[in-house]
TrEMBL record, chains A, B:
InterPro entries: ArsR-like_HTH, HTH_ArsR_DNA-bd_dom, WH-like_DNA-bd_sf, WH_DNA-bd_sf. This is Transcriptional regulator. PANTHER family: SLL0088 PROTEIN, TRANSCRIPTIONAL REGULATORY PROTEIN. Residues 1-92 form the HTH arsR-type domain. It comes from Arthrobacter agilis. It holds the Pfam family HTH_20. CDD domains: HTH_ARSR. One of its GO terms (molecular function) is DNA-binding transcription factor activity.
Length: 114, 114
DNA sequence: TCGTTGATCAACCATTTGGTTGATTACATC
DNA sequence: GATGTAATCAACCAAATGGTTGATCAACGA
């Protein structure tokens, strides 16, 4: 994944309104007006949030007459967890390796004393 | 997870320098100077990035004399993938459900024509 | 064709952010 | 104690961000 893609995706998720939109869209597609309803901000502001999410590739939009419903893209979310997991798993692997070294040292110490 | 925590964590990841720091720390702990070395920015800027990561709970810091090494926290990363997966899995579930409905309709259509 | 509704565009404002330089703190070593 | 080094603090700057209001575009329904 390119830097720009990850920049856009993570900063898109770094806002509670946009995360709420993600949560809502995970249940079903929805239009801007439907998404705006639960928020205390203007429809224009929601429209901006949606553009950010779309630009980040997290959602897609279709045409349905006058409406332009938004759909969550699970594959984009999976790409993000994939990135995070790469480093989480590596870190966990390193910690286990360190634990192994420490217990080896401890064993050697016990052996020396016995 | 609270909104503020997620805000801090995701916006911490929304910067290529900070992601590079995460990647570096997944292999082993490192000090500010070590982390700053591969970058074309000042040590102070790196120090700021590290504070952002620490504030977000993604890394921890310890004292080793004059040095203050940074350590990646895998559990914090796991919390993020957990959040994302909640909605990714729900979206995938909904898409499968929709596919089921569509194929049922298609079957009924075939039956009617036969 | 005309009014209504979904949605975006445009301009503007306050705040945040990523970077800089220069000064300062804290620890280690001579 | 004096010097050097790891790291942060402080003040500042340019650019990006999240929000507003007002105007505009595009499609539907009478």
């Amino acid at each position: 994944m390119e830097d720009d893609t990850l920049d856009a995706a993570f900063s898109a998720l770094a806002d509670p309104a946009r995360r709420a939109i993600i949560a809502r869209l995970s249940r079903s597609s929805a239009t801007v007006n439907e998404l705006a309803e639960p928020f205390a901000i203007t429809k224009q502001a929601v429209s901006k949030h949606i553009q950010v999410l779309e630009q980040a590739g997290l959602i897609t939009r279709t045409r349905d007459g006058q409406r332009r419903p938004c759909h969550l893209d699970p594959a984009a979310l999976e790409a993000l967890t994939g990135w995070i997991d790469t480093y989480r798993l590596e870190a966990e692997r390193q910690y286990r390796r360190l634990d192994g070294v420490l217990s080896t040292l401890k064993d050697q110490h016990s052996k020396e004393r016995s």
